[in-house]
Amino acid sequence: MSDRLQRIQTRYQNSETANRYDSSRYHDFQGRWNNRTVWSVLKKALKHVPAKGRIIDMPCGTGRFSWHLAGEGYQVLASDISTEMLAVAEKAQPSPNSPRPVFQKGDLFNLPFKDSEFDAVFCIRFMNLVDRKVRVAAVKEMSRLAPVLIVSYYHKYTFKYLSRWLRYKLGLRKAPHARLTKEAFLDEIKETGLHLRELLPVTPLLSEEWIAVLERSKSSIPK
């Protein structure tokens, strides 16, 4: 496991970080808008998942989308390596009568589930934190669990990235975080052995997120 991944996992296994995670990202206008737009695109991706199907959301973090998925009628297992993040997620129930996901601690790279135990895997806002080697390994492990993966990737085709790059070139900030080109993204998916069924931009030129719908090839389906 990479040192970077270990640092990220350790960072989120902290009560203070977990408790302020949503408020620092999603409680202002921009954050709420981001949540709405990402969820609207995720709902489009769900057309590839059977109605009331079984979905594992991992790492689920504070349950940002786990509760939405349960509310849409899916059987949701929300998993994260951080007990602290799961504690916040469990308390995020939209209303007393909202359908509940099942919350379970779990390591993305050491999963106890059987092959094809789920209809789909959700993996949102994880791939932007790790390098290519870890991303490919994660996708390969997740593809064991379900025939459909709905995964977010971060790309560089935005005004935000252009602004950061220009300020970096002018010596006004440090180098921006690496983001994918379309060519690099397609090459990476090829390495996973999966088929790209659909690539959905969240908000062209404004949002860095792509939502990728990946499928196993027939040759990679577990026997």
Tell me the count of domains.
1
Estimate what percentage of residues fall within beta strands.
Answer: 15-25%
Q: In percent, how helical is the residue content?
A: 25-40%
Secondary-structure-based class equals: alpha/beta
Largest sheet report = 7 strands, mixed
Q: Determine the CATH topology.
A: Rossmann fold
Give the N-terminus to C-terminus distance in angstroms. Answer: 28 Å
CATH class membership: Alpha Beta
Order of helix and strand elements from N to C terminus: HHHEHEHEEHEHHEE
Characterize the overall form: globular
CATH superfamily, please? Vaccinia Virus protein VP39
Features:
223 residues; Rossmann fold; disordered C terminus
Summarize the topology.
Blueprint: H1 3-12, H2 15-25, H3 29-45, E1 54-57, H4 66-71, E2 75-80, H5 83-90, E3 102-105, E4 120-123, H6 132-143, E5 148-154, H7 159-169, H8 182-192, E6 194-201, E7 209-216
Parallel strand pairs: 1-2, 1-4, 2-3, 4-5
Antiparallel strand pairs: 5-7, 6-7
Helix pairs in contact: 6-8
